[in-house]
């Protein structure tokens, strides 16, 4: 991993640690290894600790008095509450994207959709989930609402490890693909109201109870 440029120290340290939490490299409940991260990033303790304060404010870590920080646990209640908010955000993003999406953005999402379908047909779940994630993020970006994008990005980081890594049953997987087909059709028609409704339903059904229970304390 490349060392961080001094000019972008504070924000990039926070972004790197966010990614490590989202990817499961730093597990829920584990202590944040400050010395190891400083060596890995090529920074001193000061910018790392400033980044941890930001991440604590965002809910990614918990600061321990005189004992550093630990990664916040995702409880069943926290996940439920987070997905309820994200459901509304994606529905709004869909409505806005229907009216604002550019031809280039639509073409990109269609390309990702066809990649996702290929992974589905080949039974490659991890690559399918990656393309799935990129589609949802691209629709949010197409809303062209910076506030919505920032809030969504923060919440999505928190739950990405659950949302885009859970094993899917064959029936649910098939249903999810059908819902994505409907999303693409709504985007092509620039029907934001329909797309928002589909996204809301899609996210409501996104994570199975078993996946939520896995993350519960």
TrEMBL record:
InterPro entries: GntR_C, TF_FadR/GntR_C, Tscrpt_reg_HTH_GntR, WH-like_DNA-bd_sf, WH_DNA-bd_sf
GO MF terms held by the record: DNA binding; DNA-binding transcription factor activity
SMART domains: FCD (SM00895), HTH_GNTR (SM00345)
Domain HTH gntR-type: residue ranges: 7-74
Keywords associated with the record: DNA-binding, Transcription, Transcription regulation
SUPFAM superfamilies registered for this protein in UniProt: GntR ligand-binding domain-like (SSF48008), Winged helix' DNA-binding domain (SSF46785)
Protein name, UniProt field: GntR family transcriptional regulator
Organism of derivation: Billgrantia tianxiuensis
Lineage per the UniProt record: Bacteria, Pseudomonadati, Pseudomonadota, Gammaproteobacteria, Oceanospirillales
């Amino acid at each position: 991993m490349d060392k961080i440029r001094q000019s972008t120290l504070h924000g990039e340290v926070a972004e790197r640690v966010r990614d490590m939490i989202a990817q499961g490299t730093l597990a829920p409940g584990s202590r944040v290894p400050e010395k190891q991260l400083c060596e890995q990033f090529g920074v001193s303790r000061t910018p790392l600790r400033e980044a941890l304060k930001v991440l604590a404010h965002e809910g990614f870590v918990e600061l321990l008095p005189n004992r550093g920080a630990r990664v916040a646990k995702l409880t069943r209640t926290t996940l439920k509450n987070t997905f309820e908010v994200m459901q509304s955000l994606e529905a709004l993003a869909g409505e806005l994207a229907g009216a604002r999406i550019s031809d280039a953005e639509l073409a990109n999402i269609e390309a990702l959709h066809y990649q996702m379908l290929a992974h589905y047909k080949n039974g490659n779940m991890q690559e399918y989930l990656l393309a799935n994630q990129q589609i949802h993020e691209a629709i949010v970006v197409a809303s062209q609402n910076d506030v919505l994008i920032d809030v969504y990005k923060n919440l999505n980081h928190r739950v990405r490890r659950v949302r885009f890594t859970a094993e899917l049953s064959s029936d649910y997987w098939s249903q999810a693909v059908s819902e994505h087909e409907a999303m693409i059709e709504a985007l092509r028609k620039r029907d934001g109201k329909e797309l928002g409704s589909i996204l809301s339903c899609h996210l409501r059904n996104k994570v199975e109870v078993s996946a939520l229970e896995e993350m519960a304390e």
